[in-house]
Automatic annotation (TrEMBL):
<dbReference type="GO" id="GO:0000155">
    <property type="term" value="F:phosphorelay sensor kinase activity"/>
</dbReference>
<feature type="coiled-coil region">
    <location>
        <begin position="177"/>
        <end position="211"/>
    </location>
</feature>
<keyword id="KW-0547">Nucleotide-binding</keyword>
<keyword id="KW-1133">Transmembrane helix</keyword>
<dbReference type="GO" id="GO:0005524">
    <property type="term" value="F:ATP binding"/>
</dbReference>
<keyword id="KW-0808">Transferase</keyword>
<keyword id="KW-0418">Kinase</keyword>
<feature type="region of interest" description="Disordered">
    <location>
        <begin position="11"/>
        <end position="36"/>
    </location>
</feature>
<protein>
    <recommendedName>
        <fullName>histidine kinase</fullName>
        <ecNumber>2.7.13.3</ecNumber>
    </recommendedName>
</protein>
<keyword id="KW-0067">ATP-binding</keyword>
<feature type="transmembrane region" description="Helical">
    <location>
        <begin position="130"/>
        <end position="148"/>
    </location>
</feature>
<keyword id="KW-0597">Phosphoprotein</keyword>
<dbReference type="GO" id="GO:0046983">
    <property type="term" value="F:protein dimerization activity"/>
</dbReference>
<dbReference type="Pfam" id="PF07730">
    <property type="entry name" value="HisKA_3"/>
</dbReference>
<keyword id="KW-0472">Membrane</keyword>
<feature type="transmembrane region" description="Helical">
    <location>
        <begin position="154"/>
        <end position="176"/>
    </location>
</feature>
<dbReference type="InterPro" id="IPR050482">
    <property type="entry name" value="Sensor_HK_TwoCompSys"/>
</dbReference>
Length: 413
């Protein structure tokens, strides 16, 4: 449901611009540029016309009972009928019409019904200032009418009080209707805004989830695929290698490919709907599994030195340990790509309340290194991961041509 389905509830209609709102021109233009009446408009106008006519006939009957002259009664009939007919074009000139009917009702009580309907319409469709002006004129008209056409059954004071009550009733009722419509507009706009914000929040959550999955996929697969690339390259450039070395390299390629497929299945499982994933998901890496990562690197032929100064790695929070693992993994991967043969040192230290510090260093590679393409997205992803965990990460080349990665992660006491 949109606001265009209810043009009379648009803010422009509530602002009281001419020709808008219920009884305004918030409809498709008809011939000559005038607004086309809807079925609802015809029903409302017909009911108001009949109501005004009924009130006019009641006033006319009172005038007849007072034995006033036939000419005056005829004049009342004509002016009352004209006032009721004037209600049909009231949508175009509501303020002008009510001011004219205020004057006519002073001399013709039969126009009082049409006058009250027009007063109600102005209170519904116009802001406070025009309504206050029209209300002042209506109060003056209510005071003058009993003086010009007195009603002996009520007297002057009774007629004035009755007229003021009717004026206040019509104005108050119209303003109440206007306020309720404004409230509906505000509530609908708030609902639409809330719905749009919910959509934006959902899109942002999806974007963050995609970024997290992409970062995790890079961190996991880069390590495995680098092992594949290095050993496949060794087999390509050393076809005369001893069979034992070829078998070992082939075994590393096979194991790395298998592990890469397992990691890829696990990451893709995150994208599945609840209940579609494998219940036997592998556990996430932590600081306690850092030894296994180093052992894999050594088995692949890398020279890795691990200095883990944390006495109880299992006591480190799982999220912090996982981040430490990913930092060390990315450091080993980059060293294997850009400094093959160089010894990599991984230092982990810290404690509760002090935080966890991770250092990954490798010197300049011995000899010439073939160019290996790299986008730097891994280090960018690690920096984002450390920042999200509440820590920091710095990296860069050292003076001797090596590379240094240092990260600090919080560990609450």
């Amino acid at each position: 449901m949109t606001r265009t389905e209810y043009p009379w509830l648009l803010p422009s209609a509530m602002a009281g611009s001419p020709g808008t709102g219920p009884g305004g021109t918030g409809r498709a233009p008809g011939p000559g540029g005038r607004p086309r009446r809807t079925v609802r408009d015809w029903v409302v106008d017909t009911v108001l016309f009949l109501g005004a006519s009924l009130l006019g006939l009641t006033a006319l009957d009172t005038s007849t009972q007072l034995n006033e002259g036939s000419a005056i009664v005829l004049l009342d009939q004509l002016l009352g009928a004209a006032a009721c007919c004037a209600l049909w074009p009231r949508r175009r000139w509501p303020v002008q019409l009510v001011l004219a009917l205020a004057v006519v009702s002073i001399v013709t009580p039969a126009a009082g019904g049409a006058y009250l309907v027009a007063l109600f319409s102005v209170a519904v469709h116009r802001p406070f200032r025009p309504v206050a002006l029209v209300g002042g004129v209506a109060v003056l008209s209510a005071a003058l009418q009993p003086a010009v056409r007195p009603d002996p059954s009520l007297g002057y004071l009774g007629s004035v009080v009755t007229g003021l009550l009717l004026v206040l009733l019509m104005v108050g009722w119209g303003m109440l209707v206007r306020s309720s419509r404004q409230l509906v507009v505000v509530l609908r706009e708030r609902a639409e805004r809330a719905e749009e914000e919910a959509v934006l929040r959902a899109e942002q959550a999806q974007r963050l989830a995609r970024e997290a999955i992409a970062r995790e996929m890079h961190d996991v697969l880069a390590h495995r695929l680098t092992l594949l690339s290095v050993h496949a390259g060794a087999l390509e450039f050393r076809p005369d290698a001893p069979p034992a070395e070829v078998a070992r390299a082939a075994g590393v390629i096979r194991d790395s490919a298998h592990e890469a497929l397992q990691d890829l299945r696990q990451i893709i499982g995150v994208l599945r709907a609840p209940g579609e994933g494998d219940s036997a998901d592998r556990p996430q890496p932590t600081l306690a599994t850092l030894d296994t990562l180093v052992a894999e690197g050594r088995a692949a032929g890398a020279s890795v030195v691990l200095d883990n100064r944390i006495a109880d790695p299992a006591a480190v929070p799982a999220a912090t340990g996982r981040t430490v693992y990913r930092i060390a993994q990315e450091g080993l991967t980059n060293a294997r790509k850009h400094a093959p043969g160089a010894e990599v040192t991984v230092v982990v230290r810290g404690g509760p309340g002090e935080g966890v510090t991770v250092l990954v260093d490798n010197p300049a590679p011995p000899g010439e290194v073939p160019a290996v393409p790299g986008s730097g997205q891994g280090l960018i992803g690690l920096t984002e991961r450390a920042t999200l965990a509440g820590g920091t990460l710095r990296h860069g080349r050292t003076g001797d041509g090596g590379f240094h990665v240092q990260a600090w992660l919080p560990w609450s006491a």
